[in-house]
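Most newcomers find our protein records easier to grasp once they have seen one. Sequence and backbone structure share a record, each on its own labelled line. To make this concrete, we reproduce a full record directly below:
***
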Amino acid sequence: MSHLPYLVAGWIMLVGVYGIVTSRDLVHAVVCLSVTQSGTYVLLLAIGYRSGATAPVFSDRSPGGRPVTDPVVQAMALTDIVVGATVTALLLALAVQVARRRGTLDPGELRSLES
C-alpha cells in the first residue's frame, strides 16, 4: 500500500492552512479553507481505495468474487463535497455583507465590534 495519497492529502491541507494563517483578505481565507477541505476529499478517497477493485454498482456483473470498493467512503466524500460547497457559499455571502457594512475585507481592521 502506498503512502503517497496520504502525503498528498496532508500537503494540500497544509497549503490551505498556511494560506488561512497568512491571509489578509476574507475572500482569500475562504478560498484557502476550500483548498484545505479538498485535502479531505483526497484523504477519504485514499482510505476507500482498494487495488484491483471495482465500483459497487458493477459488483453483480463480475462473477468470480471480484472485490469492490467501500461505498460508504464514497458517499462520505460526496457528502463532504456538498457540505464544503455550502460552507463556502455561506462564508462568501458573509464576506459580502461584511464588505457592505464595514467597507473592508481586511481581518485586522475588523477587530472592533463598535459600529
In short: Residues 44 and 75 are 10 Å apart (CA to CA). DSSP finds three helices and no strands in the chain.
